[in-house]
Amino acid sequence: MSKRKTVIVTGAGTGIGKATAKRFAQDGYNVVLNGRSDDPLAEVARQIGEHAVTAPGDVSKKDDVQRVIDKAIEAFGRIDVVVNNAGVVKPGGADGLSDDDFEAMLTVNVHGVRYMTLAALPYLRKTKGNVVNVSSVSGLRADWGMYGYNTSKGAVSLMTQSLALELGMEGIRVNAVAPATANTRLAAGLSENQKAMDAFAARIPMGRLVEPEEIASVIAFLAGNDAAFVNGVVLPVDGGLMASNGQPNFAALSQG
């Protein structure tokens, strides 16, 4: 068994998952990189070096999840942290979102978190490890035209808290981050829409999108010893977005 702690990061080929994998490697972990596409995972593994292995698979499929767990144990002999980051976004209003798109978000965003957490649990019990889920501010408050995504991420937030109650009694912590829209490929289309970017900037007190590395830092904190008594938290990483009660910026309006 490796003396280094081992983390599994789902959705590790791009964006938040990639930044998180690289951050844990910097912090001295073995890293198991999971995602649907092998090529991006291989590139991240190349950047990390000898302490990373790839474990491609679809987290919404139990057999794939078990293969990820088996690969982690085969490579490193232990699992200390699971970061459930893999997710999909399918916009659509009440009568516009298809059944298939709604189901896709539930299977990946909700079932995927459950499958990976439960499959890793026997090993987390041995190491007194912990789980960090990637929810969203959209799992704490609603968005227009995103009710399916809100539903899935709301489930992640409450699953986090519910599992924290149960597993905390065994010394296994379960927490989550709830980012605002991050500067990743999922938001890439926004950068070409100045009106959309201005709308985001107007709502976020810090005036910009969060960077993946900034989310990764908070995930690493929640997984680490400095957060040893933090359990059941869904921590916004949103530049102050949720500090607002939703009303417009009166100061800015008065200047106009």
UniProtKB/TrEMBL annotation:
It comes from the Bacteria. InterPro entries: KR_dom (IPR057326), NAD(P)-bd_dom_sf (IPR036291), Sc_DH/Rdtase_CS (IPR020904), SDR_fam (IPR002347). This is SDR family oxidoreductase. Pfam families: adh_short_C2 (PF13561). Residues 5-180 form the Ketoreductase domain. Coiled coil: none annotated. Belongs to the short-chain dehydrogenases/reductases (SDR) family.
